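Quarterly update from the structural biology core.
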Amino acid sequence: MSEFRFVRSLLPGNYGRLATSWVLGIAAVGLAVVLPQQVARLTNLFSGDQPPRWGMVHLAIFYLIASQLGLSVISYWRRKMEVAVQESMVRNLTLDLFSRVLRFSADFFHEREVERINTRALEDTERVATFWAEAVVGVPMAVVSIVVFAALMLADNWFLGACMIPLSLLSGYFIFFDRSLQA
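Predicted structure, tokenized:
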């Protein structure tokens, strides 16, 4: 629970950006579904016994191009907002850290070089804030993506979906925790 309070303390003024980034992420998940659906539609159109109507083919190609263009625009704006949130978190954490460091006694600064203190503080706060910014934006979108794709797999073919969901989770487990795969 203290991590949640810590992250909230770094986010003042960025809740709107964060919410907008999540909404754009949900829209991106929806657009990411269009590509496989339209490829399947084109495959079905050309695999039949009768020749496809070109109006249907053109419409499927239009959906493909429009979804990829929309996905690119959404990705650009999401990344721009993520950078703003990350910079704000770095700034807030750095100011908080330096306000604490400045309260140290003078002996602390006599025993250590100020340049090393500054370098270490700036690098560490940047790493920590970047980690939390990516987690705050990325983890909810990963969960939404997993839920949407699992629901689509189950809706399309329940047996195949029921087989693929546990296999996907198992493969994720092995990728993250198996030492021979990580080497």
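The chain has seven helices and no strands.
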